[in-house]
Amino acid sequence: MSELGSLVGEMIAQATKGSPIIKATVETPPPNLTIKFDGQVIPSKQIYCSNYLLPHYHRDYSIDGIIDNIEINVSSYDYDNTTTDTKGHGIPKLTGSGKYKGSGIYKSHKDIWFEDTLKKGDEVLVVVLGVYYVVVTKIVKMPSGAIEGV
Question: Matching Pfam families, A to Z (predicted)?
Answer without folding.
Answer: DUF2577 (PF10844)
